[in-house]
Amino acid sequence: MNARVYITLKPGLLDAQGKTVKSALDALGFKGVKDVRMGKYVELKLNGAKAATVKADVERMCKKLLANPIIETYRIELVQT
Amino acid sequence: MNARVYITLKPGLLDAQGKTVKSALDALGFKGVKDVRMGKYVELKLNGAKAATVKADVERMCKKLLANPIIETYRIELVQT
Predict the structure, then answer these.
(1) Do the beta carbons of residue A48 and residue A1 sit within 8 Å?
(2) Domain with A75 in it: what CATH number?
(3) Which residue from B minimizes the CA distance to A8?
(4) Count of CB pairs separated by less than 8 Å, A with B
(5) A34: domain range?
(6) For A28, which of B28, B44, B65 is closest by C-beta distance?
(7) How far apart are CA A37 and CA A16, in angstroms?
(8) Cα–Cα distance for residue pair A74/A79, rounded to 1 Å
(9) What is the tally of structural domains in chain B?
(10) Beta-carbon contacts of residue A33 (< 8 Å; ≥ 6 apart)
(11) Residue B22: pLDDT band by 50, 70, 90 thresholds?
(12) What is the model's pLDDT at position B48?
């Protein structure tokens, strides 16, 4: 089974990288960009077919390593292969 | 309209960050992780309601700034707000 994890800063926290990208887009002439927020995207290939078990494992991976739960939120998506 | 962009290294290219994360997960005792690939995730808030126009704009942003089209691929998802 594959898992996709999307990690973003919690809303309200200043996203300096996103602000920089927004300025760069403005400077390149792209109009109509109101806000940019940057995050991380992780694709995992996993053994195991039980969605519930795999999801629980990936949750633990996020809490222990992939995300910083103090300042980041994450969303997990399972993809059957 | 909101757009979500997922940027990953092209398949076949060595993903050093992903390899490192995989080793760290192994070391933490997570079994069954076969592969990890890291990417970037960008959330854009945009003016404009026409999906086709917005998508074309975001394509151009990816090619010009967000992604490196030589080594990276990207996927765009539009979210109606």
Answers:
(1) yes
(2) 3.30.1280.10
(3) B41
(4) 94
(5) 2-79
(6) B65
(7) 9
(8) 16
(9) 1
(10) A22, A25, A26, B44, B45, B46, B47
(11) very high
(12) 83
